[in-house]
Amino acid sequence: MKLTLTTLAAISLAGTAPFQAMAQTTVQSCNRTVAFDAPPQAAISNDVNLTEMMLVLGLADRMVGYTGISGWKTLDEEMRAGVEELPELSAKYPSKEVLIGADADFFFAGWNYGMTVGGEVTPDTLEPFGIQVYELTESCIHVGEKSPASMDDMYNDLRNLGAIFDVSDRAEGLIANYQADLTAFLAAQPALETAPRVFVYDSGEDVPFTAGRYAMPNALIEAAGGTNIMNDFEKSWATVGWEAVVERNPEVIMIVNYGEVTADQKRAFMMNNPAFADIDAVRNDRFVVLEYVEATPGPRNIEAVKTLAAAFRGE
């Protein structure tokens, strides 16, 4: 991933051209068709994974800030360098006033990634202020029907952002490299006798917050050769009962690392709880950790699949 970001930064510096008018571009954003008469010049992205998509496309110079990172997560060194010229306008979800006050003309967010259904910040509430919205594909299940999460969700977002900002060649190049890299890596991996059963542990002790069939980890696990034990759960990110986790007996537990509770603390909670003692993953101490930015849709999904594939084939 470091190579990818560095490479893209170089591409960005070398390939950035002065703003040029383009013909109207339309993209599908969840259940809306959105038309752009010109590339946005004052964009804001919400959350760390969406912001990283903007950065790998070399769009930092089209942005006036970002939101929704420091309230829950931390920027790693690589991301911090990428956004060092940009202000964080809100530590958590932005208000409508924050976006308007920044003179934004574009907001890249998702449902439960900066916007909530029925909340004050939505495509409809921002439109009167000249702020167009592109919604994260993974999140579209909150406003309509959608196929289960797949790697194509992330590629679709890169492709649509490329069209919106008139950098389609850059987006297509990225996607082709990601796909070729992943295909070559997986082809070199030993075959699995069976797909390991995997539970995604995001957070929570009374009830676990996990990934259903519409959340990105479902796609990452499948791409790596495993099976999400909640792949029949008709949700994206949501809570389930611990009873269902115990009953489905995961062989591997994927921890999503972010927030105040560390990955080590999450692992210790499961290892030390007698109720989980008979779970295969606990008995065999098989945990794998993904950072939040790896587990949610974004460029680091490629490395996430590699991490999972290696863990699934380990003892």
From TrEMBL:
Residues of the Fe/B12 periplasmic-binding domain: 42-315
InterPro entries: ABC_Transporter_SBP, ABC_transptr_periplasmic_BD
Keyword Signal annotated: yes
Record's keyword terms, sorted: Signal
Signal peptide range in chain numbering: 1-23
Keyword flag Protease: no
Protein's UniProt name: ABC transporter periplasmic substrate-binding protein
Source species: Octadecabacter antarcticus 307
